[in-house]
Structure formats: C-alpha cells, structure tokens
Request: fold
Amino acid sequence: VQLQASGGGLVEPGGSLRLSCAASGNIFSINSMDWYRRTPGNLRTLVASISHHGRTYYVDSVKGRFTISRDNAKNTVFLQMDSLKPEDTATYYCYADGVERHLSDYTPFKLQGRGTLVTVSS
Reply:
C-alpha cells in the first residue's frame, strides 16, 4: 500500500489550497485518514482526521478554516485549506490506518505518505 499526496505550494495569506492524498495497493479497508503537519521549527501536529464513516476532528488552530473529506470509493482524502495564515506554513503529511488483503490474508497497515510543502507568504 502506498500513499501519494499532492496539492501543496506557495500561497498568499488569506488564500486557499486543496491537498489530496490517494492510497493505492491491495486495500481491503481504510479506517481513519489523517493530515499531520511539521513546521519549520520541527513541531509535528495532527491537523485533521476523518473516520471511514465521516466523523471528523480538527486541531483548534484550523477549525472553521480547514475542511477534511474523503472519497471511500477512491481511497482518497482531501484537505481544503481556506483563509491560510503564515503560521500554516509546514510540510503536510497524510496518514492512513487500514487493512490490506492478499488472497485470504488480511494485514493491518499504518502508513504515512511523503509530505507536501505548503508555504503561506506574501
């Protein structure tokens, strides 16, 4: 199983970006899908999380500005980021917790994808 994230870039304060992360491989199911970020100061934070059934969690600093969603049919999670602030500058990582299947073998997995850099600056 692999995770491929995309959508980072440079944006001015107040702008928007949409991150995507697609899981591929012999996936049987995915439980939670999360977005973490690591700041230039090396602080790692869980930004948002979404369960298979759509229950969401947001860290206080992004509530009302970020929206996490997922497409279970495509094993993809999104992070819509609006009203971006310079302090949102970080490398964003997606994370998936699920089960992969090989014939009759079912194996749990926990994976983190490669990061995508988000820079908020004028």
Observations:
- The mean pLDDT is 95.
- The chain is about 0% helix and 60% strand.
- The radius of gyration is 15 Å.
